[in-house]
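User: My instructor asked us to take a sequence, write out its structure as tokens, and then describe one feature of it. I'm not sure where to start. Here is the sequence I was given:
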Amino acid sequence: MTLNKEKNLKLYYSIKEVAQMLDVNESLLRYWETEFPHLKPKTTGNRVRQYTEKDIEQIKVIYNLVKVRGFKIAAARKMLNQNRSGVEKQAEILETLTAVREELKAIKVQLGGLE
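Assistant: Let's start with the prediction itself. The structure tokens for your sequence are:
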């Protein structure tokens, strides 16, 4: 039996790790927890937050609505309540397009060196 090396073996992430992934402050993540009721990371006895991959995906959707698209908190909450699957799909598409753009920029730099 072989291990799936592509799959992330980490089950939980700290608030610091999640904040670094998105380049935001930890306080912003704590604030979003109060504003978006569906965002509830697991906490230990010492009140240490433990974020799962699902929690991180939800945070990315919120990030897309608030930071990228410029929605106010109330509008983002309303969008999530009315059409969660549509909003999640839009965030996924935007993330894919951003990754493609970065890859194309890297290819352009490589091709520029060939001239």
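For the description part of your assignment, you could build on this observation: The first helix runs from residue 15 to 22. Try explaining in your own words what that tells you about the chain.
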